[in-house]
C-alpha cells in the first residue's frame, strides 16, 4: 500500500464557504493547501480522533474530528474512493472510517447533542445539520427559546446569520433547560463574555438608533448596551469613528459612534450608534478601578473620580477606551449661526453637519460621507417651492445622496464652504444665476434693503413715464379716431363677416343706429393706443433726460470700488448683498446727505423734462397733423376709384340708414342697396329715385364731416 494519497479538486468547508484546494494524506498526517490563498492546514496523525464518510451535495465528503474538539470537513470525493481511504485510515491512523448518512426527512423536531466544538441536531441516530460553535457570535435566551447569531462571512455570497431553537420545558427541579442549552453554547462559542465587573455604568441613556433607552456598561474590551428587549455587545475594535455634534437648538448634543461591522437587530443593521444628551444633565462618575490601575491603563486621560456634563463624561470615557479622536464640527456657520443645516433626506427631516473632512447627516438614516469619496456636488432648485433648494452629492461609486428642503438663506454659506474645500461643483457656471434667482423671490421687508427691489422700482417708473409720454402725443388722435364718414370703409373691411347681418335691417329707431358706431369706436380705441405704445417703445428718444437715481444708488456708485477693494473677487450679487447690509447699518445723519443729493437730482430731472416736453409736443403735433391730412387724401382718392369702377366690390353694409332720413344726406350704401333691389324699387315714387340716382351726392355729404 502506498504511503501517501493525493486528491485534487477537494473542497474544504470553512465558516460556511467552500474553498477549492488539494488534499494529501501521509503517515505523518493530513495536509490541505488552499488553491486560492495558498494557506496550508496541517493535522497531525496523533491528533485524529474520528473519521466519518458521508454523502453530501458535492458527491461524498470526509469529516475529521481531532482530540481537542476541532472539526475539519472535506468534500468532492467520488464514491469509489471510499475503499482506498478506509484501508489507508486502518493502516496508518488505526481508525475506522465510519459511514453515516444525513437525515433528509425534512423534520424540524429532534435532539441537540454537544460534542467538542460542534452542535449536532439529530433525528433518531442520523444527523440533520451541524453547527461549529466557533462560528457563533451571540447567544440570547427567551421564554423556551434560544437564539444563535453567527459571524458574517464576507467570502460567501449567502450567509446563515441566525438560528432559533425551541426548548420545551421539563419537570426536573432546579434545572432550566434553556439556560443549560445556552451555557453549553457559550462554553465553546466565540461570544464576548461579560466577565468581571464593569469599569463604569451609565443608566437610562436615550438612544436614537437603535431606538430606546439603554444602560451602557463599559468593560475593558467591549461596550455592553442593555435594553428592555435587546442586548448588544460592541467590541472596541469595531468602532471606526466618534462624533460629538451640537444640536441646532443649542440645548442638546449628539454623540455618534460609527461601527464596522454593524450591530444587527433581526434583518436591520445599524452602522451608527446615536446617543442624545441634554446639556443641562450632569453626573458624578467613579471608575471601578483603583487609582494605580487607572493611571497605568489610561495615562492621565481618566481619573478615578470625575464630574461634569453627562455627554462630556461619556465622550471622554469612550475616547480613552477606544483610543480614537472625537470629530467635532469645524468653522462652518449657517445663516442662523448654527454649525448645521436643517434639511430632509428620504422624506425624514434631520441635520446636515459640514465637517472638516466630510459631511454627516443625523439621524434617520445616519449618513457619513468623506470628501475623498465625493465625485461632485450639485446645487439644484427645490421641486416644490422657490424658497428652498436641494444639495446633491454623488460619490465615486455612483451612489447619490439628495438633501432637500434647505432654506435659500443657507445657499451662500454652503456654497462658500464647498468651494473652500475644493470639491467639484457640477453647476459652478450657474451659481450667479442661481443666486440672482433666489433674490428675485425674496420678500420685500421694510427693515431690510433689497437692491433687486430698488432696481425693479426704477424700471417701473421709467415704463410709466414712457406710457404717459406716448399718451400725450396720441391722446387727441385717439379721441377723434372715429369718424363715420372717414372710418366706415376700414371698419367694414375688417369685419366683413358681420356685414350681411346689418345690411338687411328694416325699420329701426335712431337709437340703434347711434349705438353701432359707439361699438366700433371702442374697438378703435382698444387697438390704436396699443400700436402707438409699441411705436413709442421702439423709438425711444435718446435726447430725453435720464431718470434720477435714488439715494441708495447714488451712495452705491460712490462706494462700489471701495467695497470691491475690501473684498477681492466678490461677485455681483454678493456685492449687492454686502452693500445692502452697509446701507442698512448706516447712521441716519449720513443717509440724509444722500437723500438731499437724490432730491436735487430729482428737481433737476423735472426741470429738464419740462423743457424737453414743450419742444417734443410742438414737433409731435405738427407731425401728427401732416400724417392725418395725408391719410384723408388717400381715402378720398380710393373712394373715387371705386365709384368709377362700377361698384364691382361688394358694398359694406355695416351701417344702413333708416327710412325717412332727409334727402340732404345719401350715403354710398343707400345708393347701392336701392339699385340692387328689383320689385320694391319699381313701386317707390319718383322723388326717392331722383334723390338716390346722382352719384356725387355721397362725396358731397362726406365733405362736411371732414
UniProtKB/TrEMBL annotation:
The lineage of its organism: Eukaryota, Metazoa, Chordata, Craniata, Vertebrata. Component of the FACT complex, a general chromatin factor that acts to reorganize nucleosomes. The FACT complex is involved in multiple processes that require DNA as a template such as mRNA elongation, DNA replication and DNA repair. During transcription elongation the FACT complex acts as a histone chaperone that both destabilizes and restores nucleosomal structure. Keywords: Chromosome, DNA damage, DNA repair, DNA replication, DNA-binding, Nucleus, RNA-binding, Transcription, Transcription regulation. Residues 545-613 form the HMG box domain. Residues 532-544 have a biased composition (Basic and acidic residues). This is FACT complex subunit SSRP1. GO terms for biological process: DNA repair; DNA replication; regulation of chromatin organization. Residues 458-552, 608-706 are annotated as: Disordered. Residues 497-507, 691-706 have a biased composition (Low complexity). Belongs to the SSRP1 family. InterPro entries: HMG_box_dom, HMG_box_dom_sf, PH-like_dom_sf, RTT106/SPT16-like_middle_dom, RTT106/SSRP1_HistChap/FACT, SSRP1-like_PH1, SSRP1/POB3, SSRP1/POB3_N. It comes from Podargus strigoides. Residues 517-531, 625-638 have a biased composition (Basic residues). GO terms for cellular component: FACT complex; nucleolus. The gene is Ssrp1. Residues 474-496 have a biased composition (Acidic residues).
Amino acid at each position: 500500500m502506498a504511503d501517501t494519497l493525493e486528491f485534487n479538486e477537494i473542497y474544504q468547508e470553512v465558516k460556511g464557504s467552500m474553498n477549492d484546494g488539494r488534499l494529501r494524506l501521509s503517515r505523518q498526517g493530513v495536509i490541505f493547501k488552499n488553491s486560492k490563498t495558498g494557506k496550508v492546514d496541517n493535522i497531525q496523525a496523533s491528533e485524529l480522533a474520528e473519521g466519518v464518510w458521508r454523502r453530501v451535495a458535492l458527491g461524498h465528503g470526509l469529516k475529521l474530528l481531532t482530540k481537542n474538539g476541532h472539526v475539519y470537513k472535506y468534500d468532492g470525493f467520488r464514491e469509489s474512493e471510499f475503499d482506498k481511504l478506509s484501508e489507508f485510515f486502518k493502516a496508518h491512523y488505526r481508525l475506522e472510517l465510519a459511514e453515516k448518512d444525513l437525515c433528509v426527512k425534512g423534520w424540524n423536531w429532534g435532539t441537540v447533542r454537544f460534542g467538542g466544538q460542534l452542535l449536532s441536531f439529530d433525528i433518531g441516530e442520523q444527523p440533520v445539520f451541524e453547527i461549529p460553535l466557533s462560528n457563533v457570535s451571540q447567544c440570547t435566551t427567551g421564554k423556551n427559546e434560544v437564539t444563535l447569531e453567527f459571524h458574517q462571512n464576507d467570502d460567501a455570497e449567502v450567509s446563515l446569520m441566525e438560528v432559533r431553537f425551541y426548548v420545551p420545558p421539563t419537570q426536573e427541579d432546579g434545572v432550566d433547560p434553556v439556560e443549560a442549552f445556552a451555557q453549553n453554547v457559550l462554553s465553546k462559542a466565540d461570544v464576548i463574555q461579560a466577565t468581571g465587573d464593569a469599569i463604569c455604568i451609565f443608566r437610562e441613556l436615550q438612544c436614537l438608533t437603535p431606538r430606546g433607552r439603554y444602560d451602557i456598561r463599559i468593560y475593558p474590551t467591549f461596550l455592553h448596551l442593555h435594553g428592555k428587549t435587546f442586548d448588544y455587545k460592541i467590541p472596541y475594535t469595531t468602532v471606526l469613528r466618534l462624533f460629538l455634534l451640537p444640536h441646532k437648538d443649542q440645548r442638546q448634543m449628539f454623540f455618534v459612534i460609527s461601527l464596522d461591522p454593524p450591530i444587527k437587530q433581526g434583518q436591520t443593521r445599524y452602522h451608527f450608534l446615536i446617543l442624545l444628551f441634554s446639556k443641562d444633565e450632569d453626573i458624578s462618575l467613579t471608575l471601578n478601578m483603583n487609582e494605580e490601575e487607572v493611571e497605568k491603563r489610561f495615562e492621565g486621560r481618566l481619573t478615578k473620580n470625575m464630574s461634569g456634563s453627562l455627554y462630556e463624561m461619556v465622550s471622554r470615557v469612550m475616547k480613552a477606551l477606544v483610543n480614537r479622536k472625537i470629530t467635532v464640527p469645524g468653522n462652518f456657520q449657517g445663516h442662523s449661526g448654527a454649525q448645521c443645516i436643517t434639511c430632509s433626506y428620504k422624506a425624514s427631516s434631520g441635520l446636515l453637519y459640514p465637517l472638516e473632512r466630510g459631511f454627516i447627516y443625523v439621524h434617520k438614516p445616519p449618513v457619513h460621507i468623506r470628501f475623498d469619496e465625493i465625485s461632485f456636488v450639485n446645487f439644484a432648485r427645490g421641486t416644490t417651492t422657490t424658497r428652498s433648494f436641494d444639495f446633491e452629492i454623488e460619490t465615486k461609486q455612483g451612489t447619490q445622496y439628495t438633501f432637500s428642503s434647505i432654506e435659500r438663506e443657507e445657499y451662500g454659506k454652503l456654497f462658500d464652504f464647498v468651494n473652500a474645500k475644493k470639491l467639484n461643483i457640477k453647476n459652478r457656471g450657474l451659481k450667479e444665476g442661481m443666486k440672482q434667482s433666489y433674490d428675485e423671490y425674496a420678500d420685500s421687508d421694510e427693515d431690510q434693503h433689497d437692491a433687486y427691489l430698488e432696481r425693479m422700482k426704477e424700471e417701473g417708473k421709467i415704463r410709466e413715464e414712457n406710457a404717459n409720454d406716448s399718451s400725450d402725443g396720441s391722446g387727441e388722435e385717439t379721441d377723434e379716431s372715429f369718424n363715420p364718414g372717414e372710418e366706415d370703409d376700414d371698419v367694414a373691411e375688417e369685419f366683413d363677416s358681420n356685414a350681411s347681418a346689418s345690411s338687411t335691417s328694416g325699420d329701426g329707431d335712431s337709437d340703434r343706429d347711434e349705438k353701432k358706431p359707439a361699438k366700433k369706436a371702442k374697438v378703435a380705441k382698444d387697438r390704436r393706443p396699443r400700436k402707438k405704445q409699441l411705436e413709442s417703445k421702439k423709438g425711444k428718444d435718446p435726447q430725453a433726460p435720464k431718470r434720477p437715481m435714488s439715494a441708495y444708488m447714488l451712495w452705491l456708485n460712490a462706494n462700489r470700488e471701495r467695497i470691491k477693494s475690501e473684498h477681492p473677487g466678490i461677485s455681483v450679487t454678493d456685492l449687492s448683498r454686502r452693500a445692502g447690509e452697509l446701507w442698512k447699518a448706516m447712521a441716519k445723519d449720513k443717509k440724509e446727505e444722500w437723500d438731499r443729493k437724490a432730491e436735487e437730482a430729482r428737481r433737476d430731472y423735472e426741470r429738464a423734462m419740462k423743457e424737453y416736453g414743450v419742444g417734443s409736443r410742438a414737433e409731435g403735433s405738427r407731425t401728427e397733423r401732416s400724417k392725418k391730412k395725408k391719410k384723408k387724401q388717400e381715402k378720398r382718392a380710393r373712394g373715387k376709384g371705386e365709384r368709377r369702377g362700377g361698384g364691382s366690390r361688394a358694398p359694406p353694409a355695416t351701417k344702413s340708414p333708416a327710412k325717412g332720413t332727409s334727402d340732404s344726406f345719401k350715403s354710398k350704401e343707400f345708393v347701392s342697396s336701392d339699385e340692387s333691389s328689383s320689385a320694391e324699387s319699381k313701386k317707390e315714387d319718383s322723388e326717392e329715385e331722383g334723390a338716390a340716382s346722382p352719384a356725387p351726392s355721397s362725396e358731397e355729404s362726406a365733405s362736411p364731416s371732414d
